[in-house]
Amino acid sequence: MTRVFSGIKPTGHLTLGNYLGAMRRWAEVDQHRSEALFCVVDLHALTVDHDPARVRRLSRQAATLLLASGLDPERCTVFVQSHVDEHARLSYLLECVATDGEMRRMIQYKEKAAREQRRGGSVRLSLLTYPVLMAADILAYGTDEVPVGDDQTQHVELSRDLAVRFNQRYGHTFVVPRATHPKVAARVMNLQDPASKMGKSDDSGPGIVYLLDEPEVVRKKVMRAVTDSGRDVVYDRQERPGVANLLEILAACEGKDPEDLSGAYASYGALKKDTAEAVVEVLRPVQARHRELCADPAQVEAVLRAGAEKAREMARPTVDAAYRAIGLLPA
Ligand code: AQP
Q1: What's the CA-to-centroid distance between 199 and ligand 1, angstroms?
Q2: Which residues lie below 8 Å from residue 329, measured CB to CB, with a gap of 6+?
Q3: What would the pLDDT profile of 214-264 be if each residue is shown by its tens digit?
Q4: pTM of the predicted model, to two decimals?
Q5: How many Å apart are CA 119 and CA 70, to the nearest integer?
Q6: Which terminus of the chain has fewer Cβ atoms in its 10 Å neighbourhood, N or C?
Q7: Active site members
């Protein structure tokens, strides 16, 4: 059976981008057709300046939202990365295979390092090395497929490169994974700045729809989305990025094609109105389930405990094999 792994980092409140680009597919497709693991990758949230209490709070919220979005612990494994030591154990070995040059070429490193410096902060070493930890997250489980948004393509490529390199040097140990992306909304853009991805660690603002935004807030944000100078509704990501973004969001919510939808609208206003309502409807059941789960935090904790135990058992044989293959004495 295909093995699937993916994660979400508690660096902010989860967004519509996270949902349409990743989480929804995990719940609707991946957990039904594969042996799937989904993880709150909390160690990755420590790579930038952070408030410990906030990371704890956001980790709990992310786990709750994963379940609220439809992940079923009977069908898949849901857990928190730091509860499973194998991730960090394997990460060090992979650092011994990765090179300084390939880490510095990571686009997200360049962007985030520049952002930290603009904010007057220092760049943590972990910001440079976290793609290796991400590779460990993936490779520890013998993962075949990594369902992610577009922005993670380079990181999954690195995982592939490290797996191939390790296998060539030390003998076959890792499955070589591949990224999979949704057909539409693989990169949901910021509603106020359609040149930038809707990212949860961006400074909060009217361009980001959060999964827990009230319907009225969602409507306001979508109605105020930046559109383009033209008047007609055409699907053109290069020339009309604002309208294309709305068409993709609407298409993803309704399971349609953005190009087909463009022909159905004569004005930006009508497109925005339908998009706002479609987003409100997609978020409604997630928010309702989230409220129920918040009333029973012990249930979420029990899922995470059981998930970590299962994940540990799944990861340990591969990580132990990697330790032996690279030349370390068995304990
Ligand atoms: N805008 C997006 N459109 C489509 N997919 C997205 N994802 C994130 N944003 C979008 C996908 O959601 C999964 C989890 O994302 P993440 O937690 O790794 O990253 P993030 O939400 O993008 O959070 P940050 O803190 O703002 O991270 P950076 O700055 O690293 O991008 C992934 O599958 C991701 O592709």
Answers
A1: 6
A2: none
A3: 999 999 999 999 998 888 899 999 999 999 999 999 999 999 999 999 999
A4: 0.95
A5: 37
A6: C
A7: 112, 197, 200
Check: CB of residue 179 under 8 Å from CB of residue 148: yes
Q: How far is the CA of 190 from the centre of ligand 1 (A)?
A: 12
Give the list of residues 6+ apart from residue 200 with CB closer than 8 angstroms, or none. 11, 12, 13, 14, 15, 17, 18, 208, 210
Residue type, 281: E
Q: Which atom of ligand 1 is nearest to the CA of 199?
A: 26
Output Rg (C-alpha) for the chain, integer angstroms: 20
Q: Is the model's pLDDT at 120 over the cut of 90?
A: no
> In the chain, what are the domains?
3-181+297-326 (3.40.50.620), 205-291 (1.10.240.10)
Pocket of ligand 1 (CB under 6 A): 6, 8-9, 11-12, 17-18, 21-22, 108, 148-149, 151-152, 186-188, 197-201
pLDDT tens digits, one per residue of 55-87 = 999 999 999 999 999 999 999 999 999 999 999
Give me the count of residues in the chain: 331
Q: Name the strand (E) or helix (H) holding 56.
A: helix 52-68
In this predicted model, what pLDDT tens digit does every residue of 274-312 receive, in sequence order?
Answer: 999 999 999 999 999 999 999 999 999 999 999 999 999
Span from the CA of 39 to the centroid of ligand 1 (angstroms):
14
pLDDT at 174: 98
CB 209 within 8 A of CB 194: no
Which pLDDT belongs to residue 204?
A: 65
Instruction: Count other Cβ atoms within 10 Å, centred on residue 203.
Output: 8
Best mutation site among 109, 151, 154, 192 for ligand 1 pocket (most ligand atoms within 8 Å of CB)? 151
**Which residue has its alpha carbon closest to ligand 1 atom 22?**
199
